[in-house]
Amino acid sequence: MREEPPENMKRVLLLGGTGDALAIARALSAAHVYSLAGLGRVPGDLACAVRVGGFGGIDGLARYLRTENIALVVDATHPYAAQMSRHARDACAFAGVPLWAVRRPAWQPQPGDDWRDAADWREIVARIALFRRPLFTLGREALAHLHEIPASQHWTIRCLEAHSGNARAKIVDARGPFDLEGERALFDAAGIDVVVSKNSGGRATEAKLVVARERGLPVVMLVRPSLPHADKTFDDATSARDALARWLDRIHSSET
Ligand code: NAP
């Protein structure tokens, strides 16, 4: 059974839903909280508390920070979860709580890459119009457009959702990381001729870009949203986890 944190103990709220966040959560003790939106898998093997579901906007989060005695928020959400990041920034400002953020650097095109930016769904559709077999790796967004697939196209949609698809679309329900061999096999089996991706950064889902490069296939890249300023920003989970360990040591020694 998890021990309740002592009253008035300063606690960390970690906003998650990514592999980076999970790696940080694994280093947190029972006093601290890992928060998930509730769309994906909820880990059952963490020492820290896990809460699931939205806070109810900026006000709800600011209230949560006060009532739960949160002394530091670490935003390790996905780079496209911009609303949560903005809410965290505003709620922390209201509540006077420092905000740290893990901001994974974007992937950069390499020699041989043919990347084409798209600002939104409408631009994605325009960019893929001349292709026949796109691979969508945007999450579940493409599922909302299954009825719009042109007769000239067959879509492969990889996302974390079991879905039967339709005659023009196959849904691949798979969770990363994805390796090179697996991605090559997927491209072969589905006859992929263009990739549609977020610029998520990191290693876990990078292999599809390598396969696109190997085959001279274009990648339609959904432009990253702009993210708010944080008091401290880290490129990866390891540096955030190390800084957090030092912060917790300092807090702990000032409390004892
Ligand atoms: P979003 O658009 O920025 O957030 C929508 C709302 O979901 C937020 O306003 C908040 O609700 C709630 N929420 C989001 N993250 C939360 C968290 N960690 N804890 C509690 N509530 C959270 O987010 P999204 O793009 O839908 O992503 C949802 C989750 O999936 C995030 O945790 C993100 O890290 C993860 N994820 C997203 C992507 C992506 O491509 N967007 C990819 C992989 C993983 P309230 O306003 O009610 O507080």
Can you describe what's shown?
This protein has 256 residues and is of the alpha/beta class. The chain has two domains: 11-105 and 226-255, Rossmann fold (3-Layer(aba) Sandwich); 115-222, Rossmann fold, CATH 3.40.50.720. Helix content is 30%, strand content 21%. It contains seven helices and twelve strands. The longest helix is centred in the C-terminal third of the chain and has 19 residues, at 237-255. The site of NADP nicotinamide-adenine-dinucleotide phosphate has 24 residues, from strand 2, helix 2 and helix 3.
Concise description?
By secondary structure, the protein is α/β, with parallel strands linked by helices. It is built from seven helices and twelve strands. It binds NADP nicotinamide-adenine-dinucleotide phosphate.
Q: If strands are numbered along the chain, what order do they take across the biggest sheet?
A: 3-2-1-4-5-12
Q: Give the count of structural domains.
A: 2
Tell me the radius of gyration.
Answer: 20 Å
SSE string, helices as H and strands as E = EHEEHEHEEHEEEHEHEEH
Helix fraction, binned, reads 25-40%
Structural class: alpha/beta
What portion of the residues fall into strands of 2 or more residues?
15-25%
- Separation of the first and last Cα atoms: 25 Å
Q: What do we call the CATH topology of the largest domain?
A: Rossmann fold
Number of extended strands: 12
Supply the key terms.
single chain; 12 strands; Rossmann fold; alpha/beta; binds NADP nicotinamide-adenine-dinucleotide phosphate; 256 residues
